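Record type: monomer structure entry
Structure origin: computed from sequence
Chain ID: A
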Amino acid sequence: MNDSLQLHTPPLRAFDIRFTGSGSEYFRIWIVNLLLTVVTLGFYMPFAKARRLRYFYANTLVGREPLAFHGDPKKMLRGYLLMLVLFGGYALAGRFSVWLALGVFVLLALLWPALWRSSLRFRLHNTSWRGLRFGFAGSVADAYKAMLPLFAPSLVFLAANAWFLGDVDQQDPRAMQAAMAAQGPWLLAGFGLLALLFPLCLSLIKRYQHTGYRYAGQQGEFSARTRAFYMLALKSLGWMLLAFVVLGAVVALTFWVVGSALREQSMTGALFFGLVMVVFYVGLWSLLGAYFSARMQNLVWNATKSQALGFQSALRVRQLAVLTLKNLLLMLVTLGLYRPFAVVNMLALRLAAVRIEVQGNIDTWQAAGALATDATSGEMAGDFFGIDLGL
């Protein structure tokens, strides 16, 4: 009986993910994109993005087969222009009235989830592997549910700003000071609400994205619970508090060791002390960022699967932290010119940590219905808030 079951069990195949691009190749693409974006006053950005994605996808091998990006930059340009109008209107409204800015923000909040969903649909539909297109089937209603915890704290900030500063003469220091003092408790409440809802927001966003993924009849499933995101946030907060304690100890120790030098050569000592603090501060935040990013990637992808697909992510905090510090140092030394190499190195490390397991014969998979969409207006939407995860 067991032998019969084993004979009928579909074989399990594992696919590693490798990025085969190089920093020198991407540098040429990056520098041309940068120059053309500057010359065209930013209007080349959608074309630059399409060119960048084609390069990244073509050099991302799942097994031995590369991904492909089929997006039309002309359609992406329409979405980019829409984003310029929306965010330009918000920036312009803030110069005239805080109440007008609040109204435009509410309009953006009402439009943004739909644009975000449109961005996901466009990106996935224009991505293929082994000749089959991906798709995204998340609903508009679920997009609004996922985004609500993100906009609630922002609304508190802007509403408090409009209420307390809307009718105050900004040229009157006393009036401004009194208004800002009255605004303080509301700002603290907004930050508290943001801290409380941030893990929930991440959980809802990841669940919406990963359950909406479609490929050849496969439907995404997401098993991570919201409490796992809260646990990650609490651990990150604990490491952050420890980092502040260490930073305070380093400051006190530095003053104690070089205190006399600081008094005798105030300018030189102050510069040296400031440099040490900046380096130490950036290093600490890089380590904290690496911890959160690595744990988040592992949490999300280890909880993602479909009927015949499973993902395993084993990104190590130490590796990510070392690479982050190395990239920051080299970008500082090269005045930012090392950035394309940093992007390639970081992408290669993240992708190499992910492994895909497939149950059955993937060669027999067929495209399951056209999830085509012309909803290109939101393609650039994710980039503004860092939601568009790309690869």
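Annotation 1: DSSP finds twelve helices and eleven strands in the chain.
Annotation 2: The radius of gyration is 25 Å.
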